[in-house]
Write a structure and sequence with these properties.
alpha/beta; Rossmann fold; oxidoreductase; 336 residues; NAD(P)_dehydrat-like; oxidoreductase activity, acting on the CH-OH group of donors, NAD or NADP as acceptor; Epimerase_deHydtase; 3-stranded mixed sheet
């Protein structure tokens, strides 16, 4: 399929989300026209104002209300005249609060694909998947993970678990993994069966850090916010893994539109591994007046040992924003 060239219209679902807000900005900065789906025009105005501060031409930005990602008619309307779609939003938000959210996430992908198939102008759909579609942390595989790997184990656990297993404290992680695996696979299967006029790309980001734009939510950047408020609870719930700066994640989404050869690919969106004690050390050095939690013992304090083959995305990007700069910019966006 040909690339989606600048001045084309890209629809960004969930544009007021943490990743979506940066994808919208990156698209404008790259010369695209952008239509963002929102649930509230109040947040949309805040986001547009923040885009202006970054020098974006907001005359090329529009918003459309979508309050139900499973409503086919709303999505059909939202993608009218589009050349590309970045599907970032998830029904019910980032973390699924009930098991039925898994099926809804898969259906949401299909709603997007059906809408795209009805719009002859659409050339490419870019899905925001997750590293959790490949592996559950803190699992470990003694080899580099590639874009060909899938987290089938957690998807199978979700589909076959007993009621007792679903009461375990970490069931929400299994649910999230299953949501990402099953929804992404549903999209690939639909494309294989329907052979539409467009192709798809799947982006596989791990934890995102970096600045939060006004009018968007904090998501994983909120972990940094909490650490800067001496709240270290996240370090006991989430193990060390890899990270990407949200601005790099956004740039990679845009490259997925602009490079024709990326059609039909899964692309890792990861820069480098991190450890919680490493993050705490950076925050103490850069913000000595702020009290952060003490280091934590054991492997959860250490840098993640899992290898990931991100060579393709590293070559595409030409380099990454490092962890230290990403954390500094996160903190400054919170007023530190």
């Amino acid at each position: 399929m040909p690339s989606v060239t600048p001045d084309s219209l890209i629809v960004v679902t969930g544009i007021t989300g943490y990743i979506g807000s940066h994808v919208g900005l990156a698209a404008l900065q790259a010369g695209y026209r952008v239509r963002g789906t929102v649930r509230s025009l109040e947040w949309a105005k805040q986001l547009a104002d923040s885009y202006t501060k970054y020098g974006a031409d907001i005359s090329r930005l529009e918003f459309v209300i979508v309050n139900d990602l499973l409503n086919q008619s709303q999505i059909d309307y939202a993608v009218g005249g589009a050349h590309g779609i970045a599907h970032i939003a998830v029904p019910g938000g980032l973390i699924p609060e009930s098991d039925n959210r898994v099926e809804e996430a898969a259906e949401s992908n299909l709603v997007i694909l059906r809408a795209a198939a009805r719009e002859p102008s659409v050339q490419r759909v870019v899905f925001t998947s997750s590293s959790m579609a490949v592996i559950r942390t803190p699992s470990f595989v003694d080899r580099p993970l590639t874009h060909n790997d899938w987290n089938n184990e957690e998807a199978e656990r979700f589909l076959t678990a007993s009621d007792e297993e679903k009461k375990e404290w970490d069931w929400y992680i299994t649910r999230y993994c299953a949501m990402k695996v099953l929804s992404e696979k549903a999209a690939w299967r639909w494309v294989e069966e329907q052979n539409p006029q467009f192709d798809i790309v799947s982006i596989l980001p791990d934890d995102n850090f970096g600045p939060v734009l006004p009018g968007s939510n904090r998501a994983t950047a909120g972990w940094v916010y909490n650490l800067l408020h001496n709240d270290g609870s996240i370090m006991h719930d989430i193990s060390p893994q890899w990270f990407i700066d949200v601005r790099d994640d956004a740039r990679l989404h845009i490259l997925a539109f602009s490079i024709a050869s990326l059609g039909g690919r899964r692309i890792w969106a990861v820069a480098e591994p991190f450890g919680w004690n490493q993050i705490l050390s950076i925050l103490r050095k850069e913000f000595p007046h702020v009290q952060v939690p003490p280091d934590i013992p054991g492997v959860w304090g250490e840098v993640d040992r899992q290898q990931i083959d991100n060579s393709e995305s590293t070559e595409l990007m030409g380099g990454w924003i490092g962890l230290e700069q990403s954390l500094i910019d996160s903190a400054r966006s919170f007023g530190f």
